[in-house]
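Give me the 3D structure for Metallophosphoesterase.
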Amino acid sequence: MRIFALADLHLSISAPKPMTVFGPGWAGHPQAIFERWPTVVGDDDLVLLPGDLSWAMRLPGALEDLVQVAALPGTKVLLRGNHDYWWPAIGKLRASLPPRMLAVQNDALRVGPVVVSGTRGWLTPGADSFGPEDRAIYLREQERLRLSLEAARRLGADLADTFHVLMLHYPPTGPGGTPTAFTDLIEQYRPDAVVYGHLHGVPQSRSLREWQGIPAYLVAADSLGFTPKLIAEV
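Predicted structure for Metallophosphoesterase (234 residues):
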């Protein structure tokens, strides 16, 4: 099994929103995703989708996008991003998802030899716009990450024959790559890899590549040419 990741699909069938406001590189990006995905991902592969999947405001609209993604090769694992306003209670979401599409929220899941954990994350202390409301969300996301990593451990994430991937939507570090509550937990639980998105217009050469020896991957779609990135083969 190969593990791929791609964040920030920003699809919008039900709520059209031109992404070219973020730069000309976004022109025609849905077509690019749907054309390039099958060139690298096979049916037996796992694709992690850490957030900002659809601009829809309600689940029915998001499902119009997700059904198309589900039809692509591979088993998909979804995580909520800051723009996934449509994301309902996790039980309702899981009951509504198309086949071969899973979701993580405050927990973890196992797909064969792979354990996937994750949480959205948030702005971190030191960010210019970080305020009291952000601090409350930051602390809540810290606890959600701890719960998810504990769930991963119960699923055998630490076993030698298991590959544990942590999904975040926001990057785990603070401004300038400084430590945060998220990186503290990453150091404590030591997943085999961390994937994150959210950052647009950031070249791979300037992205976080590792934390305390743990590989980290920026998988925002525009930074990858709208092609899923290979994380590992297990």
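The longest strand covers residues 114-119. Let me know if you want a second pass.
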